[in-house]
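Usage example:
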Amino acid sequence: MATAAESPYAAKKKTEAVTAHILWMTTGLSCEGDSVAMTSATNPSLEDIVLQAIPGMPKVVVHNQVIDYAVGQDYAQAWFDAERGQLDPFVLVIEGSVGNEEINGEGYWTGFAVNPDNGQPITLNEWIDRLAPKAAAVVAVGTCATYGGIPAMKNNPTGAMGVPDYLGWSWRSRAGLPIICIPGCPAQPDNTTEVLLYLALHLAGLAPAPELDEALRPKWLFGRTVREGCNRAGFAEQGEFATEYGADHRCLVKLGCKGPVVKCNVPIRGWVNGVGGCPNVGGICMACTMPGFPDKFMPFMDEDKWGAVAAEVMRFSYGPIVRFFRRKHIAEDRDKEPEWRRRGRTLMSGYARRW
Amino acid sequence: MTTETAAKVMVKEMSWDPITRIVGSLGIHTEIDFSNRRVNKCYSTSMIFRGFDIFMRGIDPRDAHFITSRICGICGDNHCTCSCLNQNMAYGVKPPPLGDLAFNLAETADYIFDHAIFNDCMANVDFCEQMVKETNPSLLAKAEQTAAPGRDIHGYKTIADIMRALNPFTGEFYLETLHVARFTREMYCLFGGRHTHPSTIMPGGCSADITHQTCTDYYVRLMRYFDYVKRSVPLHDDLYDFFLQELPGYDMVGYRETNLVNWGSFDDPDYVDYDYRHMTDWGRKRYVTPGIAIGGELVTTDLVEINLAIRILLGSSYFDDWTGEPTFVTHDPLGNPVDKRHPWNKVTLPRPQKRDFADKYTWVVSPRIYDKRTDKHVCCDTGGGPFARQWCTAKAGLVDFGYAKATGNSIQMVLPRSPNLPEMELEWKVPEKSNAVERDRARSYHQAYSALVALHCLERALKEVQAGRTKSWSSFKVPENAISCGFHEAARGVLSHHMVIRDGKIANYQPYPPTPWNASPRDVYGTPGPYEDAVQNTPIFEENGPEKFKGIDIMRAVRSFDPCLPCGVHMYTGGKVLKVMHTPTALA
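Running the assembly step on the lines above writes:
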């Protein structure tokens, strides 16, 4: 009989006693959409993280101003504590892009909390400088924080950039981890919570370091393109492309979908609890997870030059042939039942009666 | 002769920066008179600037909804929708009825989600047991003894039980609301693709593949939601009424004169043609009637008049004035003159600088309503959204779609039978005062109202789908030159987008979300913004003295507006004592 002392859970109890902090800085140049989206995550949900739903995971204290009970200095205290080495270990999560604070004189683009010495806001950049060296890991959540995103568009006044642009792409944390990027505008909710859970388990020694690709994305989430996971990809293969938005459920590439060259798992994972998404529900993929977003994909509603070439090849070569024979095959054969399913005194299924 | 008794008056500077449990970066800086339990001065500040209206110049107008969605992480879909309404006007395109209905179905789901999560996972944490214990222990003791009038419906025996149910991460209603806020976002995603930055909301209509399944998936969730909202409204009534009863004068917390703005939302596909010249008429056919209230009087429901009354003022913001810049629009499409301070003509010229409360202290500008009757710039607020929407709709008395009817002083609603609860009638009556509790209460009723608009639009959408009219998008061409505007309501209040197209590209794009209206600083005439005004009117009921002061009444006043500047407020508990003076109590 299994006993509590000998069960696999017995060993995991130790790490559950550890407390890890997530200091989630929402005040980059952002819209806080990643935090808001995170509240819709279901696998795991926010409560799953806070209430330690997974065996062995450390107790996680999430400091995020969208949901926090405390206000003002009571809330900001954790950041000052972390700076003094009093919160350990902690994961620094950055949401929003990093403005260039070297170009605005005595002003600021974005800040968090107030410097007690001069009454001025403390810029995001200063917080990164203070906390990144002490963090067990730095996570950039959302495309603003990972690669700059919308605030870093051409002609932007703030000189916005991503966290890796600011800290350096080869930056490593005290614990030897590179910056972990979870792109998406906003980041897909479960991608965010799942990576945070993974990191908590990693810090507890229960999981290896997350495997990242060259753009610092977790490989298991961003290894495939939108097209590779899209439920409309079959239409593309058959050379069938939608000519209007909405009721036309064929491949959206000719209407501007950037899916073939975008690394993202939304068509597979959906948006909230598996519901929603982009091309899988009819919306064009606007490439919001990509380092080249948005400039390299605008205008969004125009088809991509190379995507158009590929679509033409599919439309006028094997696409129609494959489509023709598949439809014919379905209509003439696969849509018809085998002949033995019928009423009558004889059994036609092939079974040799023994009674 | 008066008897003079010397008493200490202690005035203390206190700040909350960042203010949490809101979206965005907001700081509230105050000067509090603890002896007289009132706020002398309040400054509201935002610490973020990104410059959307700057980097949108010169881009393809068809990118506007994708880009402006990213202004806000909770109203992103409201921006996207507003931008599409705006683009529809510029391109002269009218979506098929199913397209218009899809917009309504997505946006009603958004309001439902947003009001639920904000009320019970953010704002009402200020009313939860843990908080009330820390700020007003004697009130909590009374709440333990007070039976909740609606206990048979919502299931909580006493007011304290309601407060306990709102404790973060342990309270039953808090956790239930987190769950509700997820499946209502699933409803959004059925039509909008993603929340909060949608993938299917487009100029010309909705690009979701809408089938019977889409409608079924929405229907089932909506009816489950009715079970929740039928309990939610009486629960909030009980809670807020308790505060008003037990703390006489609580109706002054967050009080402002009833100066409201609301641009209306949810167009009726039978009337809307997106043409500016007919905007007065189709605006009045909206399921939420647009309007401006000044001094408690509904002064207009005409979207054209509303458009022409908007002025953007500076005064305490980090921007240079644009009076020397070229004028984009001198007259609207009806020939009415357009002011230099109107959004169509606004040019964004940032001037980063130090924060100085005596001069410039925020990145937020000061939108005002120009009242031509008095030649004044009136500081209006959005009532956090629902308060102004219901106030104007009720007063105008134009809406009647069967499930809901505006009577001139109330909105009557009939919620149909849902899986676990019978049919229910509700009536929201226009309150006497515009204050924190009434803004919060309206937010609860507005969930029911939005759900009824959703049900009505779903029934219409089903008819379209069942008749085989599944097209939800119309094609269009971008003109070389155009001016246009989109008027919508973000969950937390007015949202307008103004666009000027020249040579097929954006020459000017000015989005005005609810935040600048509510969080605006003192304008050039010295008029404080609504947060500042409401906090300055707030009496202090908290039982803590200055040492342990949490500022709960101020927090309730500010959060009642549903602030949305991805920011917060900081508090210095050890704030500097400004002056200790002696004053005769006879004069106090």
